[in-house]
Amino acid sequence: MQTKFFLSLAVWVSLTNLSLQAQSLFSDSFDEDRSADWIIYDDSVDGVSDATVQFAHDYSQDQFAFTMGGETQYFKVPKNPYDPFASVTTKGLKISVNSDDQPAESSVSLFPKGLNVDGDHALRFHMFMSYNGPAYGGSGSTELATMGVGHSGELVAFLRGNGALDGDGTFFAVSGEGGASRDYRAYVGDGFGEPEFLDEQTDRHGFTDMDGDGVGEYNAYGGGPMEKVFPFPFHETAGTPGKGWVAVEVRRIGEEVTWVMDGQIIATISTDKSLFGGNNIMIGYTDPFSSIANPGEENFVIFDNLEVVSLGQGDVPSLVGVQVPGESVENPDSGLLQFQATPVSEDQDAVVFTFTRQGDLSQPLDVRFRLEGSAREGADYERPQSQSVRFESGASETTLSLQLINDEEEELDESIVLVIDWNGTEPGAGYETASGKYAQVPLLDDGDVGAPLPDLLAGATEIYSEDFDTDVSNDWMINQSSDDTTATFAYDYSVDGIPPAPGGKGETTLGLKFTANEMEGAAAHIMASPSGQYFEGDYAVVFDLWMNVNGPLPGGGGGSTEFAAAGIGTSGDHVQVADDASDGAWFLVTGEGGSSRDFRFFLGNDYLMDNRGVYMAGSQDAGHPYYATLFPEGKTAPDLQVFEFPSQDGATVGGQVAFQWISVQLIQKGDSITWSMNGIDVVKASQSDASYADDGNVFLGYSDWFASLSDNEFMSFGLFDNL
C-alpha cells in the first residue's frame, strides 16, 4: 500500500502545475526562516494562545494516517511535487491550533509585513492538510485552512462554528476531511463587526453549481460533485483536499474575488458582496470547535511556495467546460431549476459531448478528460482514441463523439460521466473549470430481453446467493496454505478503477478480493466456502470474475501468472491443490495467459489435461483461436491503475481473461459437469472421465502455483462478485 499511495500522488499532481507567468509582488518558499517578514496574529476563546507556527519546517518528518481498503498505514508527508524542478528541500510553513490540554476554539492568521497591493492580483500557494482518523476524520478532527485578499493585516480571521467572530476582507476556509456542515466557506468583513458568512443555502451566491441543481457546492459528501475535483485515492476523503498536495489561488480582479483549487473555481464573490479592509493578503489555520483532535499531532497544515502576483491581460487561464443536450426543470420540493440531461439509448450511434472555452482563444488548447459512470468501456461504448480534445486557434467549441455499443444484454439504465481533468501545464496553456467540470448522460437499454443463459439453466430457481456487499467473513470458511494469502470481503474495487460487475446490475462496487504469494516467494493458495451449505441434485454456480494482473500487457510483469479457482462438491475444509484431499469438480484459469496450460480442470485430484478430450478448444493454451474468440483482444487496465502505475499499460491479446468482468458458470446436471465463461462452454466432463463428488459445498479461490513474486503485488489479485 505504501508504494501505491506515493505513486498515486506523484502521478496525479504531475498533471497539475500552476504556472501562469505574472509579475511577482511578494514570495516566500518557506525554505528559510523569514518569520521577520510576516505579521502573525492568533486568538482563542479562552484567551490563551494555542497556535504553533513553524517557518522552514522540514515536513518530511511529519506523519499522517491513510486508510485504503480497510487498512490504515502511516506515511511521511511527501515532497511537494509542485516545487521547482531544481528544488531539493522539503521545507514549508507548518501551523497547528487547539492542541494544548484546554479545549477552545482558536485561530491564527499570517500577513506579509508592509504588503500593500494595488490593482488586479492573485495569491497563490501549495497546501497539504493532515487530520486524525480515516475518511471524514476522527475525534476532534475538523479544522480549516484560511486564505484571503483585501485584509488590513491587523485582524485574525477567527471562525467559530459556521460563523466568524473577527476578520476583514474577503476570505475563504476549507476543511481537510469533510467533517463540517460547511466544508467550503466564504466570509466578508469590514473590520467593524463580525464578518458575514455567505451561507450558500440561503444566499445562493458565489459557490459554483457543478451538478446543475441550482445550489452551489459548499460541502463534501459521498458521491457529490466535489469528488470530481478531489477524488479518492488521491485524497482520503473524496471531495476534500486533505492528505494530498493541492494548488490554491485567490485572485482579485476589480472588486470580484475568485477562489480556485486544483483548477476548479470553488467560488466567485461578486462586486456587490466583496469587502476589503485593506490591500494585504492572508493565510491561516483555524479550529472553529472546542474539541481537541486525538491524536492532536496528526492535525496540521503545510503551506509552501507562496507568491503574490499582479495580473494583467492573459494572466488568467481559459475557462473550459463540457455540456450535453438537456433542459432545466423545476424541482417541486425546492422550487429551483435543475438541469436534466437528455437520455441516450444504446441503439443510437454515439453520445456527443460539447466542450466550450472562454477567454483567450488565440492559441490551440488541449483539454484532458476521464470517463466514469456505471456504463463500461468496451461493453457499452468504445474506448476513445485519445484522453484529450483540442481547441484549434480561434475556436470556442470542440466536440467528442463517443461511439456506443449496442449489445444484446438486458440491462438496467446506466450512465456515462465525462470529467475534465485539470492540467495546469505550460504558461498560456492552462485552463480552469467551473460549472462545466463534468457532464453525465443517462444511457438507456433499448429493450433487449437479455442474452440467453445456457439451456441447462432454463427454469432454474435461486437457492443461495451472496453479493459480498457486506463483510460476511464470519459466515465463510477460509482455508489457506500459508499466511501469505488474503481474502477481503466487501472490498470496494472502485479504488482500483474497476467498474461494477454486470451481474449486480451496477448497483455497487463491493466484492470478494483474493491475493496470494505477496511477500514470501513461495506457492500459495486460498479458498473460501460458505459455512453450512450443502448442494445436491442438479444445480449451477454462477458468479462474476475479474482477474487483475501486474503489467505491462500483454506479457505481464514479473511473477504475473496467478490463477482464479472455483468448484463444486467440496467439503470446504481444505485448499484445492490436486492432492489426495482435493474433491469435487473445479477449475483454474490465469489472467494473462502466462502458462502453457492456462485453462485447467480437475475432477477430485485428477487433473484432466487436453489429451482427455474435455476441453472444447482441444487445448489449454490461452493462445488457441477458440479462446481468442471467447476473449477478444484489446482489454486494458483501468485508467486509474495506469495513473497509479505506468507499468499497467498495454492491452490484452485474444484469449487473455484479464481486465474484464467474466460471467462464469459451473453447471452440474446428472453425471455431467460443464464449465462455461460468458455463456460459452470451456469444459464438458462427466463421471466417466473420472469419479468426483457432485454433492457438497462450493468454493471460490485464488492460487499462485509458482515461487516468483509479482513485481507489483498491489495489481495482482482476483475478484469475485454476485455469487
CATH architecture descriptor text of the largest domain: Sandwich
In round numbers, the mean pLDDT is 87
How is the main sheet built?
8 strands, antiparallel
Q: Helical segment tally? A: 4
Overall shape: elongated
Portion in beta strands: 35-45%
Query: CATH topology of the largest domain, which one?
Result: Jelly Rolls
Task: Please identify the top-level CATH class of the largest domain.
Answer: Mainly Beta
**Structural class by SSE content:** mainly beta
CA-based gyration radius: 29 Å
Low-confidence stretches: 1-20, 425-429, 448-456
The level of helicity is under 10%
β-strand number: 44
Number of domain modules: 3
Q: Can you characterise this structure?
A:
This protein is mainly beta. The chain has three domains: 20-310, Jelly Rolls (Sandwich); 318-444, CalX-beta domain (Immunoglobulin-like); 468-721, Jelly Rolls. It has four helices and 44 strands. The strands form nine sheets. Strands 1, 3, 6, 8, 15, 16, 17 and 19 form an eight-stranded antiparallel β-sheet that branches. The longest helix has 12 residues, at 2-13. It is elongated.
Task: Describe the structure in brief.
This protein is mostly beta strands and 723 residues long.
